[in-house]
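Readers of this paper often ask what the protein records in our data store actually look like. An entry from our holdings is shown next, in its original layout:
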Amino acid sequence: MDVTSRHHLRSDEIDELAASLADHLGVDLEGEEFERVEFADVDREVVLVDGEPLVASFDGDRFLTVRGANAFPPDHHVVTVDSGAISFVSDGANVMRPGIVDATDDIEPGDLVVVVEENHGKALAVARAETHGEDMLGDAGKVVENLHHVGDDLYEFHV
């Protein structure tokens, strides 16, 4: 990921970002320094919070990264998977119904969600829901599209 620019966010941009994440995920994003990073080779922007890539754009929507979700665990838009799904999701696989043990009922099709594992609540991926939260448990079918996961380029990104 080739960085083309880095700019500090204005206080109104920080307030807007924090309010959006608080409203959507129920998190209180805190930090001293917020920088927007743009790339030449990836159609994505990242927001560094105190030097850590905690927020990124996914198809134009700003959302927590996996690191961000582990630093500020969300209350809303969360899909929980069983231990058998951890290695698959961490390798970038989409999430299938049989691996899901819980999903918050605020999830609508097209929403960004955080995928967490059931034992410790650690974030494994950021994904896009393909169905309502209450329809995610079941026996078959892909219901969550993996967009960013532990170990991918965004997860490994450092400046």
About this structure: The mean pLDDT is 92. The longest strand covers residues 142-149. The two ends are 10 Å apart (CA to CA).
